[in-house]
Structures are given as C-alpha cells and as structure tokens.
Amino acid sequence: MIRVALAVAFAGALGCVLRFLVASYAVAQWPRHFYLATFTVNIIGCLLIGLLSGLFLLRTDLPLELRTGLTVGFLGGLTTFSSFSLELLKLLEAGRLPEAGAYLLCSIFGGLLAAWGGLSLARLLH
What we know:
Keywords: Cell inner membrane, Cell membrane, Ion channel, Ion transport, Membrane, Metal-binding, Sodium, Transmembrane, Transmembrane helix, Transport. By secondary structure, the chain is mostly helical.
C-alpha cells in the first residue's frame, strides 16, 4: 500500500506542476480569459482518464502503482473541480453571465464527451 501511496504522491506532484505551468502561461497570454487553463486541463484530463481507464481494463497486468499513480495521482493533480467552481463564481459575480454559462456547459459536456472519447479510443486500440 505504501508503494501505491508514493506513486500517487509523486505523480500528483507532477500533475500539479503541469497545471501550474499551464495556468501561468494562460494568464500571461490571455488575462481576461484566466479560466481557459482550468478548462483545458479538465478537458484533457477527462480524455486521458477515459483512455487510461479503458486501457487499464485491457491491461490488468500493469502494476497497480502505475495505474493508480496515473489516474488518481497525475490526473488528480492536473485537473481540478474546485478551481473551476471558483472561476465560475468569479464570472457570475462580475456579471459575465453569457461567458459563465458557456464555461459551465462546455466544461460539463466537453468533459463528458472527452471521457467518452477516451474510452472509445481505448476500445478501438484493443
């Protein structure tokens, strides 16, 4: 169990650093659209978790440390729902209702579509 926890911690740290770098870049390039970094990592994370989950169903021989480290650790560190929620509230409080609505709908449906796409891709690769 300690090896799995260490794998999650290490991979989670990598995911967090990557999210920080993406967010820093996005804010520097598009300060008004600060939420695009969270949106991007959440959509990519949904795609990857779907893909990896599908592949791991086929490759149960892969070590638990690798499977859990990538899904719970790396993708858990990379994606974030709490930041999404706070950014959505900031858009609402700023009266940017159309943008907030688009962000909400695109994040939810985009995430679901990306996770489905990842699972479908894993099935195609099988």
